[in-house]
Every structure is written in structure tokens, then in C-alpha cells.
Amino acid sequence: MYNWLLKFFSADMAIDLGTANTLIYVKGKGIVLNEPSVVAVAENRLLGRKEILAVGAEAKQMFGRTPGTITAVRPLRDGVIADFEVAEEMIKYFIRKVHHKSPLAAPLIIICVPSCATQVERRAIQEAADAAGARKVYIVEESTAAAIGAGLPVEKPVGSMVLDIGGGTTEVAVMSLGGIVYSNAVRTAGDQMDIDIIEYIKKTKNLLIGENTAEEIKKKIGTAIMPKDKLNEKTMKIKGRDLLSGTPRETEITESQIATALSQTVAKIITTVHLALESTPPELSADIADYGIAMTGGGSMLRDLDSAIRMSTGLPAFLADNPLACVANGSGKMLSNLDKSRHVLHTMY
């Protein structure tokens, strides 16, 4: 009876718990929450524990701007939990926000993990969701959810390839007849691109910039291919701290410079795709040559990355509709057809 009441008062949900952003899909409603995976934490020395001050968009605004007593942290790194206590509080906050702070909220949750996550890391994610108030937790691999969300014919006897580039991980998977034939993940993705930009500007301009500035640069003038017309390429003015004088300074950067900064990470992503193609059975390879490579995730939105993959592999590569939401939408479709999806859903205990 108690479980029935919890089910009645709870909206079952699918969570794309990403390194950069967390998206929540509620059954019958679609995506109802899309917020940065950031938490502002203050250390309470009297009680000997952490206090959560802000979560999501509000906490992200504090990134790099907090006093010494407050820290803006990302509880997930490389798609898995780096700080269990803070991750649990973040998940709890998002669940309560979706349920409008209802004390009876105890939803069934499908939560996505990268395929490179270890058993210990998967268990940590499930335990965090359990502690946040879930009545039942299922785990699904991100690449499976991304393929379904991108609308690929994963249930049919044809090969489908998905390349999911998130904040912490890049995953590539080949699927057929509802199962994964091949999957691989590397912990190099959107966050590494931001680090590349920070390091490049530090070395070439003697200027230190923050993560938010690096992300803005990536979105505005980031490109995977060196621009041919360097006279008319895009430029951007940025501000940071001069490493020599220690004072604020403004400088200008170009597309070519950012393309150079991102070249190693782009090359690693393309190598991951090549390894997947080399490991794919011949019949499925023929299907991929026909249907192409579907690109999902925020990192796949880097300008001309699809062109770089096409040039390197000779295969069609295309950006899925709404790539940021593919994993959440895919896991949401599984939530709506739970019985049909049980063969790809797992529980750690």
C-alpha cells in the first residue's frame, strides 16, 4: 500500500546525469529540467559537514567568483561521481524541484552512465539516486540512450553507429537488433576542449582565463577545421588576468588559434571513431556506410566537427536533432516502454 502511494505521488523520470549538464525527462511530460551540474558548497566547521548553498544555474554563475569560504564544484568528473555527498544532494535537489518539493516524491529512475564507468562507479551512481529518494533505480549506458534518442533504427537488423560527445566522455557505439555490438568510451570530450583553450591562451597570450570564458570561446568561435580564408575569419575579444603583471587585460583571439588549440582533442575523437569502424563486423559496416554516423551530445556541436569526421572516415556524419537532449529523450522513451527495454536496463543490487 505504501509503495502504491509513493508511485501515485511520484512522477517516474529518466536522468541524464552529465558532467556539464543534468537533464530530467518525466514520463508523459518530456524534458522538464536542464541545468548545469554545479553545486555551490560552504564548509561548516562547527558541524563538520558541507552545506549546499546553490545548485544548477545559480551555482554556475558563482564559478570562479566565490570567496574563500564557498566553493563552486562539479560533483561529476568524466561522467561519473567524484564527490558522492555533493552529487547526492544535487540529485535530491533536482528531484524535489521536478516534484515541486513534495515530501512523498519517490520516483522510479532510469539513470545514464558512460560505458567506461567501472562497477564501483556505477554502484556509486545508483546509491546516490537511492539516497536521494528513488524507490527503484535502473542504469542504462549513455550510448544506448543516445542512439534511441537520435531516432536510429536500433531494434532492426541493421547496423547503427552513434557518437555521443558529452562534457566528460566521448562514446561511440554500434548497435543492431536492440543490443550493443561494439562500444568504446574515452574520457576526452567537451571539458577537455575547455582545458585546451585555457592552456593555449596561457601559453601564447600570457593570459589566464576561467572555465566559463573558455566555454564561451568554444561556442562562439570554436571550430574543428582550420579556416581557409584567414582574412575573414571570426575573432573574439576576451578578458583575463595577465600572468606577468597580475592585472586584468583584454586581448583578441581568432578561429585559427582556437582550431590549433583543439586539434589534439579533435584528433583523439576521430581516432576513437576509427577504432570503432575497425572493430565492426563487415555486414554492419556496410549499413553504417549507407546510414552514416549520428552525432549527439553537446560536444558534437563544435563547428565543423561533422565535416572533420566525414573527411577522415569517408562516411556520412550528421548532427542529430537537438543533440543536447538525445540521451535524456532516449532514456525517456525507455521509461515509457519499460517492459520492452528491460534487456538494456541494469541494477547493481
What does this structure look like?
The chain is built from 12 helices and 18 strands. It has helices at residues 2-9, 57-60, 84-98, 119-131, 142-149, 190-205, 211-221, 255-278, 282-291, 305-313, 326-336, 338-341; strands at 13-17, 21-26, 30-36, 39-44, 49-55, 70-73, 76-77, 80-81, 108-113, 136-141, 160-165, 170-176, 179-186, 207-208, 235-242, 248-254, 293-296, 317-319. The longest helix has 24 residues, at 255-278. α3 packs across α4, α5 (142-149) packs across α11 and α6 (190-205) runs antiparallel to α8. With 349 residues, it is of the alpha+beta class. The strands form 5 sheets. The protein has a 5-stranded mixed β-sheet with strand order 3-2-1-9-10, sandwiched between helices. Strands 13-12-11-17-18 form a 5-stranded mixed β-sheet, sandwiched between helices. A 3-stranded antiparallel β-sheet has the order 5-4-6. It is flat, with a radius of gyration of 21 Å. 38% of the residues lie in helices and 28% in strands.
Main sheet properties = 5 strands, mixed
Widest beta sheet: strand line-up: 3-2-1-9-10
How many strands in all? 18
Q: Report the principal-axis shape.
A: flat
What is the C-alpha radius of gyration, as a whole number of Å? Answer: 21 Å
Q: What is the residue-mean pLDDT, rounded to a whole number?
A: 89
Question: Could you state the order of secondary-structure elements as H and E?
Answer: HEEEEEHEEEHEHEHEEEHEHEEHHEHEHH
Relative helix content? 25-40%
Helix vs. strand class: alpha+beta
Query: How many alpha or pi helices?
Result: 12
Low-confidence stretches: none
Distance between the termini: 23 Å
Proportion of strand residues: 25-35%
